[in-house]
Amino acid sequence: MKCIFSVDVEDWFHILDLPAAPPPSQWDSLPSRVERNFTRLLDIFSELNVQVTCFFLGWVAERFPRLVKEAAGRRHEIASHGHRHRLIYQMTRAEFLDDATRSKKTIEDITGREVMGYRASGFSVTEKTPWFFNALGEAGYRYDSSVFPAARAHGGLAGSEKSPHHVGTAAGDLIEFPMTVSRLAGRSICFFGGGYLRLFPLWVIKKMTRQVLREGRPVIFYVHPREIDPNHPRLPMSFARSFKCYVNLKTTEGKIRGLLSSFSMTTFEDWLARYFDAPMASSTGHEAAIGAPDGRART
User: Fold this and answer.
1) 51-55, 131-135, 203-207, 243-247: lowest mean pLDDT where?
2) More confident residue, 80 or 152
3) How far apart are CA 296 and CA 299, in angstroms?
4) 2, 114, 145, 263: least CB-packed within 10 angstroms?
């Protein structure tokens, strides 16, 4: 089974739930690093002949459409990370629907292709957002990768389904790709993206990747462009938060190369075509109960 590699395309100042984080009204005036860092990632992917899924923040796509076109031109899948990088549980259903719809249209206008996938900022789907899947289906998405099936700072859904599965909505079925977690010392832990990937040594990440693959689940990796840029500007924050955001930045590129060289990678779109045995959108449904799938991946 192939793994799925993904990039959340945002800038160094897009840090969630932080008092010092600049508001959207200031983003245009800040020195951007996303162009150079994301282009560097694209070059690594090209060098290793790997296709990935790029979840573009709508604001980034709007400001840097060249990056979207460049990624699409290199045959990477283009998906949505929302428009304004807001936590789902801090939005109303109407606000979320507007944000998700705007980002989808922005990216589709640039690429001329349908955007199928969505990933929430901070994997911030919780029990407090029972409307999430119905709203996502209404916005026209066909799959999602927003559920974190373990406890975490921005919510998470501990105990929810860990394999890709169908979720029924009023607009038809969505496919949910939960973030990959693995059991260690009785706890569900993510080893495969963000601060988790930076914290753990590469040999541990490889070992846990093989463990998940033996269980018949795909491993979903994710990185941010700033994570291969150890010299990017820092925002003021507590020591604990700073550790989470900035630990081991110098190791990220080497770990990415090691993982891409060790495991077979693909995009969400291609994984669906290869492994899922049901139509992408079929039956109509009702407000989905998060963590209660009505289907499973073929393994």
Assistant:
1) 243-247
2) 80
3) 9
4) 114
Least confident of 1-5, 181-185, 255-259: 181-185
Q: Quickly count: other Cβ atoms within 10 Å of residue 48's Cβ.
A: 13
pLDDT for residue 185: 78
* Contacts of range 109-112, beta carbons closer than 8 Å, 24 or more positions apart: 110/61, 110/65, 110/68, 110/69, 111/68, 111/69, 111/72, 111/78
* SS3 of residue 3 by DSSP: strand
**Predicted model pTM:** 0.91
Tokens representing residue 65 in the block: 């459409």
Dist CA 62 CA 69 (whole Å): 12
- The two most distant CA atoms of the chain are separated, in Å, by 49
Question: At CA 51, angle to CA 16 and CA 107, rounded to 5?
Answer: 55
Mean pLDDT of 247-270: 97
pLDDT value at position 277?
A: 58
Q: Work out whether the CA dihedral 208, 51, 8, 172 comes out positive or negative.
A: negative
- Is residue 137 within 8 Å of 170, Cβ to Cβ? yes
Give the mean pLDDT of the chain.
91
Return the DSSP state at 64. Answer: -
Could you give the residue ranges of the DSSP H alpha helices within the chain? 24-27, 34-47, 58-63, 65-73, 93-111, 132-138, 194-199, 202-214, 239-246, 252-262, 268-275
Dihedral (Cα; 134, 139, 142, 146), 10-degree rounding:
-70
Contact 53, 267 (CB under 8 A): yes
The answer to whether 174 and 118 have CB atoms below 8 angstroms apart is no
The pairing of beta strand 265-266 with beta strand 3-9: parallel
Q: What's the pLDDT tens digit per position in 50-60?
A: 999 999 999 99
| Dihedrals phi, psi of 56, to nearest 5 degrees | -85, 130
